[in-house]
Design a protein that fits this description.
heterodimer, A: 242 residues, mainly alpha, Cytochrome Bc1 Complex, Chain D, domain 2, 11 helices, B: 431 residues, 3-stranded antiparallel beta sheet, two-stranded antiparallel sheet, 17 helices, 42% helix
């Protein structure tokens, strides 16, 4: 039995302050957005920099419209991951937009890239698909939409570098099988379905090995008109839950 | 005629008589379907129907996650299989487009479909039977005003024999009786309105009552709490001061909890979680102060009893085990930054864990869900930017969740039984 059980609570608190200073001080909690979204940073890492296990993606500094679309997608079932689905179920469009803006506004250093483990042929295949695509198979290059820097384009196209390899693999695979969906027309589903499983491994290997330049941010506008129509890109759509 | 023939004849007669009885019980209190041409519903009637649909949280089941409004498709998991809510939009082929008001009333009041088939009680007609005919007509008018969506109904996925109409007929003979809601003249009008909402449209006891092996409850007056099948959240007793009874609460606090999802009772934060969040989002936040006040006065007046299954373990033993165990260290690391070293919480932001009924309830199901899944209070106009708790599913294993809950349930004056890793595994398993 610990000592403070034997005293009335008031006396115990008074003693605690006397004996140990601030040992039993009330938690320091400020009314900030960072405090409100602690439910997110538990897995996505401090300030949303990425989780420790190589799966939970970085959310800090991603374009606000992209993050908002993903939050809506998890809440409304287009993306499926149990913890995210149940966590976001009770939240409104407005609050999800605010949460997205919070993480989009954080500019924090990126981690070192993951050294590739694939062979030279696979890496070269990955690099080709990312930078040039495969016209014969109607696969656009990643850089056509995600910017030549691969840092994404505000407000709705995400960066492809600075992400864990396992996460990239899992997302492209989920898109290919229909487990991850975006608002129709779902351009990434078309791209992922045109990719073979070996393509996905190669692209993920190459992307995860690329460094992110200091202070890199999403581009302000698309490098050229999108090669496919993407329902997730126009940000304005009617609110689904006011 | 030989003896065995007499026996067979007797058995056949008995079976026929029982079947006849079951059938008679299934169609009792049914009025003839009137075929009078419907009058065009007024805007006022439609608006009243929309309000009542919120009171019944109809969209909660009849709208799939991310699906078209009221086009059905959401599965209600039950121990007997999954029941899929049908399309209620006015599409003639797949929705209610061809349903008359009388047929709609028969579905609510008698639990029978337009084609005469018996409906599964996952559609809570044991409660909705209490809805007045006027309110049923308003709901019918509202649903008829929605945009028609052509979406075929998904067949239920129930195991044999629960997929048989005959089995359902027996269930209904045992557990369902069409009821007209009666006013209790000895009670104030406000209490009566609350009773109508809680026992009828609100179908509170669809969750807040225990069910027997056949899924039957003892009726809409039973609000003594129960584990929600398959989801494994525990809907606490509304008749126990140790669980979620509100006899000692101010009406305004009960109203605030239903309206906004949170309440500050004497400076302590109370928040809804889990399935009750869905109820606040889909239903109670939309209700008028008057109706919430009525529900509050009904709930306050419920007779309070301490359930017999509550076992209070010896406090000293618990405290010794809890505070010395590894749970204390886990608490210090993961929980104390928000909930405080003394479980005191932060006023208006994080709930206190010391003396928190949800923490010390005899069933630790909800505490397990909260630690594993985390959660936000529902975002409502009264609490638009809720604080959130992180899920610990990926940080703590079943044994560690059990240790930290054992610590919390046995510290700072809390005196609830320890939680085992097995219990954690059982409650978090479903979903």
């Amino acid at each position: 039995m610990s000592w403070h059980r034997t005293f009335p609570v008031g006396a115990a608190l008074a003693l605690a302050v006397g004996a140990f200073g601030a040992a039993h001080a009330a938690p320091k909690v400020e009314d900030t957005m960072a405090q409100r979204v602690q439910a997110c940073t538990g897995c996505h890492g401090p300030q949303g920099r990425a989780g420790s296990d190589g799966y939970y993606p970085r959310i800090a500094g991603k374009p606000a419209g992209y993050l908002y679309n993903q939050l809506l997608g998890f809440r409304d079932g287009r993306r499926s991951y149990g913890l995210m689905n149940s966590l976001l179920a009770p939240l409104s469009d407005d609050y999800l937009r605010e949460i997205a803006a919070h993480f989009a506004g954080l500019t924090l250093p990126y981690p070192q890239p993951q050294p590739a483990t694939a062979n030279v042929d696979a890496l070269s295949r990955g690099e080709t698909l990312v930078l040039r695509g495969d016209a014969a198979r109607r696969i656009p290059a990643c850089v056509q939409c995600h910017d030549t820097t691969l840092m994404g384009v505000a407000p709705a196209v995400p960066a492809l570098i600075g992400l864990p390899r396992d996460y990239l693999n899992a997302q492209l695979g989920a898109w290919r099988t229909g487990n991850r969906r975006a608002a129709a027309p779902d351009c990434m589903a078309q791209v992922a379905q045109a990719l073979a499983p070996e393509d996905i491994g190669a692209v993920s290997q190459w992307l995860a090995a690329q460094p992110v330049a200091n202070g890199a941010k999403p581009a302000a506008q698309l490098p050229a008109p999108l090669p496919l129509r993407c329902g997730g890109v126009p940000d304005e759509r009617p609110a689904t839950r006011p | 005629m030989t003896a065995w023939r007499w026996t067979a004849l007797g058995v056949a007669a008995l079976v026929a008589a029982l079947a006849g009885l079951v059938w008679a019980l299934n169609v009792r209190d049914e009025s003839a379907i009137d075929t009078a041409a419907p009058t065009a519903p007024t805007a006022e009637l439609i608006a009243r129907g929309a309000y009542l649909a919120h009171a019944g949280n109809c969209a909660g089941c009849h709208t799939a996650t991310g699906g078209a409004f009221y086009a059905g498709g959401r599965g209600v998991p039950t121990p007997f299989g999954t029941v899929y809510a049908p399309n209620l939009t006015p599409d003639p082929a797949t929705g209610l487009g061809r349903w008359s008001r009388a047929e709609f009333w028969r579905a609510l009041h008698n639990g029978r479909s337009r084609d005469g088939r018996l409906l599964y009680p996952a559609f809570p007609y044991p409660n909705y039977t209490r809805i007045t005919r006027d309110d049923a007509d308003a709901l019918h008018a509202y649903l008829g005003s929605l945009p028609a969506v052509a979406q075929p109904n998904r067949p239920h996925a129930l195991r044999f024999p629960f997929d048989q109409q005959a089995a359902l007929a027996v269930w209904r003979a045992l557990y369902f009786r069409p009821t007209v809601h009666a006013t209790d003249a000895t009670r104030p009008a406000e209490w009566n309105r609350g009773a109508y909402l809680v026992e009828g449209l609100g179908h509170c006891n669809a969750c807040h009552a225990s069910r027997n092996a056949l899924g039957g409850t003892t009726g809409p007056l039973d609000l003594a709490g129960g584990l929600i099948p398959v989801q494994n959240w525990y809907a606490p007793s509304l008749t126990s001061p140790q669980e979620a009874g509100v006899a000692a609460w101010d009406v305004q606090d009960i109203v605030a909890l239903l309206k906004t999802g949170t309440a500050a009772r004497g400076g302590r934060l109370v928040a809804v979680a889990g399935p009750m969040s869905e109820v606040v989002i889909g239903s109670t936040q939309h209700l008028s102060q008057a109706d919430l006040g009525a529900m509050a006065s009904y709930l306050k007046a419920l007779p309070q009893t301490i359930p017999d299954n509550v076992t209070v373990a010896p406090v000293k033993a618990i405290a010794a085990a809890a505070t010395a165990g590894p749970g204390a260290k886990l608490y210090e690391q993961h929980c104390a930054p928000c909930h405080g070293e003394q479980g005191e919480g932060v006023s208006g932001i994080y709930p206190a864990l010391a003396g928190n009924r949800a923490v010390v309830m005899s069933t630790p199901a909800n505490a397990v869900h909260l630690v594993v899944e985390g959660g936000f209070a529902p975002a409502t106009p009264g609490n638009p930017r809720p604080f959130g708790m992180p899920p610990f599913a990926t940080l703590l294993n079943d044994g560690e969740v059990a240790q930290v809950l054992t610590f919390v349930r046995g510290s700072w004056g809390n005196a609830a039984a320890a939680v085992s890793a097995l219990e954690v595994s059982r409650y978090r398993g479903a979903k």
